[in-house]
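pipeline/complex-builder :: batch 7 item 3
reading input block
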Amino acid sequence: MDNCIFCKIINGEIPSNKVYEDEKVLAFYDIHPVTPIHVLVIPKKHIESIVKLESEEDYEYVKSIHKAINEIAKKLNIDEEGFRVVANCGENGGQEVKHLHYHILAGKKLGTKVAE
Ligand code: AMP
Ligand code: ZN
């Protein structure tokens, strides 16, 4: 989709520091990390957010994203110590980039409260 930062990362117009890639998913380091390890996992299809998932194909992307998170956790060696996965959705969720993405937050002990 035009003017979508993450679509531009997928097609190579904007560089990224890739962590993982397969046919349906791309993962790269967040440019403004909020934890020692901060990775974004995105579908290689422009889906705006969780509430815009509508087809079986879309849900196949979600399945692939979970598989990717599993593999990234092992690759980055955070599978045992743990991490947090966050998907901001819409205005109240604080979603800035309107292309579905999951934050992997890791590398330190996070607070027990999910929401600020
Ligand atoms: P959200 O607030 O959930 O929409 O998060 C968007 C995230 O994308 C933020 O954490 C940004 O730091 C990150 N971000 C924006 N542009 C880029 C980029 N070009 N490369 C990597 N991360 C980015
Ligand atoms: Zn997009």
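note: Helices lie at 5-10, 56-75, 90-93.
queue -> next item
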